[in-house]
């Protein structure tokens, strides 16, 4: 065990790290989620998370970046303002806010572009939370997509539910499920601003996951007949009149769908198709002819994650072209694609994001492992400049302790090329090596600030080398690569990760005797699986893991996902659900394993971590179980992030000197 003074040093290091990173109470944005330019004035509206002085959960704030570089915060502390979108003529700014309604109960608001004061509050949808919206081309109507309060949030979201409600109930009152999905639906409506009139789009039994205008008279949407999170894996494309009525099926691809985007003239529907999760949508650009239904996938040299029409013939996109991110425009009339921005780093959060500006320009919320959050303006002539840099002394101190991430490549057992990134601490000879595994499996690591997880930069700045592998099944390299994990989760993908560890040991100056493994969600599942396959890791930390496929299937909110990716059947005793469950091999584990979960998690319920922890304890393997009562799929509260960071560093430091080997 580590000494008290060393534990105190870890506690101080972690607390200092998060204080420097987030600077609570200073209105410091620590990421940029949305950034859009006013087409008339050039003012950029952006939003991102901020921690307030008392800590707690982050609040999303909205700000305006003037053409002179000045930044002005909008709204009030304590309320969440997000998703800014300018009207087509630039006179109004629409955004979502939960001001005055309680955390997460988002409604639509409009502000005057000149004064930034709210002039019109959008329609209040009682018992619902607005998830997204889109202006009509003439700026007179807004398409609103909403979810009933209490509906499940996306699987990879940190929260568990959409919206919230203050309901007084006796302490003895039970929670009741009926299976009827009452009050869990998602809907679309068109709001006529001048008339203040709402028109319902769709009908009972149609869940609207995403929606957009298709010309002026139609709405195109991603739909399912099931309102549950698992229903998202069973979607189709539908079209309905903007004047109201049911959606009619337009197409039903056999893959996942996201980012539906109708052209201004209504002739073309753009969408992203592939194998991915709802908040990690990165796949193949697909274009549908509205009149004929003809489907085509133009070769643009990238997987896409953001779409917007510059005009009816030119489609703007942002995406990933391994190992970096790109933004560009595909011209439907010529079939040509122009890449207007390319970077080894990225833009956006979980997947690349950017928005169009002018004829061929773009606004990019950029960052990289060695570059803190900033906004890039790509001009029409192809030049680019940073117009806002959020780097501060605290962030720079963290950056000084780390080297830039390196893109690396290696081969799987079958010769398939695998890629990932390696981050090394500054000034440390032969550092310990941590394999850090992403969620998904259809997620990916990009060269991004802290690899979208504050634990990553914490580990590197604390003296660890960290490998961020993108094994087969990851997004960003096409449908074939992403599909290679289907029916083989914990198969060759596991060997891809181990091969990456071997590659780093053979080609970089790390300590091969000090190996660790960690990850969240699918990364937590793979962490538990790997320690059941090998004894080479000194210690492991599994966050929000899946450990037993059968109990996961019957307790998570999206069992359809597990059926799709495992190819198994929970009633097939001895089948895939047994063969590929880490719990089934817990009796072979010798690696000390820390398990962390949120008690509000519906994607990988905390019972998954509990089962695995108890199995290890019964087998005499050192294990620690940490359950955060207020957290969902990932720790978000300031205090919880500090506590989690302390526990991870302490766990790895405790077992650095352990002699690896088989169970006695």
TrEMBL record:
One Pfam family of this chain: PD40
SUPFAM superfamilies membership: alpha/beta-Hydrolases (SSF53474), DPP6 N-terminal domain-like (SSF82171)
Organism this protein belongs to: Sphingomonas colocasiae
Protein's UniProt keywords contain Repeat: no
Transmembrane residue ranges: none
Hydrolase among keywords: yes
Protein name: S9 family peptidase
Top-level taxon of the source organism: Bacteria
Keywords carried by this UniProt record: Hydrolase, Protease, Serine protease
